[in-house]
Amino acid sequence: MGINTADDAGVYRVSDDMALVQTVDFFPPIVDDPYWFGQIAAANALSDIYAMGGRPITALNIVGFPAGKMADTVFTDILRGGQDKIIEAGAVVVGGHSIKDAELKYGVAVTGVIHPDKIITNATARIGDRLFLTKPLGTGLITTGIKRGKVEADLEQIVTRQMAQLNRDASELMVDHHAHAATDITGYGLAGHAFEMAQAAGVTIRINAASLPLLPHALELAEQGMIPGGANANRDFLTGNITVADSVDPNRDKVLYDPQTSGGLLIAIDPDQADSFMSACNARSLPAIQIGEVLDRLDVPIIVV
Predict the structure, then answer these.
(1) Which helix (H) or strand (E) holds 232?
(2) Burial group, residue 298, by CB count within 10 angstroms (0-12, 13-18, 19+)
């Protein structure tokens, strides 16, 4: 599995019982604190491994740093944050590469392992599956609000901690409950990643807008116009491929396209496993919410009601 699919990571079989799962991700700072930025960037990259049902084992740092324009402590704090998150994931940093750059950037290339027969892709959702989301939405709206000075410190802490949260528990539980398909919700927003899942499987995904878990004040920020540029691009991309009922709150509609940083997993679970999966998530205090279901293919891949 590689660039021929829209999956979250590439997979390379090395033996009958082992395959490598590989991914890379990096971006400019999403928060001001360099230590938390390092954690968030690492968690975001690790999420691609978790979305496939894999276990991360090694990581390589990737850094673009404006030397001479920022204190060296910023550089070390970012790397310390990334390393702490990678250690939390049970993996190890084995090296990396840095360059001088006009804009600060950090990320991680991650290698994981998985059994070739247990790979979970975004392409195998089945009709009747229940769809679960494992983190609240709204990180793009809130981080945009932070940049514009519209967000209080307590909400900034909430969104920062969520973005730094690993998707490890969600990944382990979806493997235990034989999930049919999964993807992590990042830059394309919930609607964009759901579209990829629906297209790959030749199905339609129905999302219940009222069931969407939201971060505090996400709807208020949407109403105030704290819309990231990526959200508009996501909406344009999905033109003709999504139908939203007139009854859906316009601000919830905006959340559908909101690009997430280190968002949760969107998981397609057999209905016979849905209750057990929910119970297992509750036991780990994981806020998994059923937000929709998989239908036979209709006129468009995504329906929001």
Answers:
(1) helix 229-237
(2) middle
- Residue ranges of the alpha helices (H) in 134-286? 139-147, 153-163, 168-176, 189-201, 218-223, 229-237, 250-256, 271-283
Strand, coil or helix: what is 101? coil
Structural domains in the chain, CATH included, are 10-118 (3.30.1330.10), 130-304 (3.90.650.10)
Distance from C-alpha of 191 to C-alpha of 66, rounded to nearest angstrom: 35
Residue for token digits 């190890």?
A: 92
Strand-pairing partners, residue 204, are: 295
What pLDDT is recorded for position 5?
Answer: 66
Cα 289 from Cα 271, distance rounded (Å) = 14
Encode pLDDT of 142-193 as tens digits. 999 999 999 999 999 999 999 999 999 999 999 999 999 999 999 999 999 9
Beta bridge partners of 55: 113
The two beta strands, 302-304 and 204-207, are parallel
Residue reference for tokens 């036991």 = 283
- Residue the block writes with tokens 């999956």: 7
Which uninterrupted H or E stretch holds 146? helix 139-147
Q: What would you report as the CA-atom Rg of the chain, rounded to the nearest whole angstrom?
A: 19
Strand duo 130-133 + 265-269: pairing: antiparallel
Q: Which residues of the chain have pLDDT under 50?
A: none
Is the torsion defined by CA of 49, 50, 52, 56 positive or negative?
positive
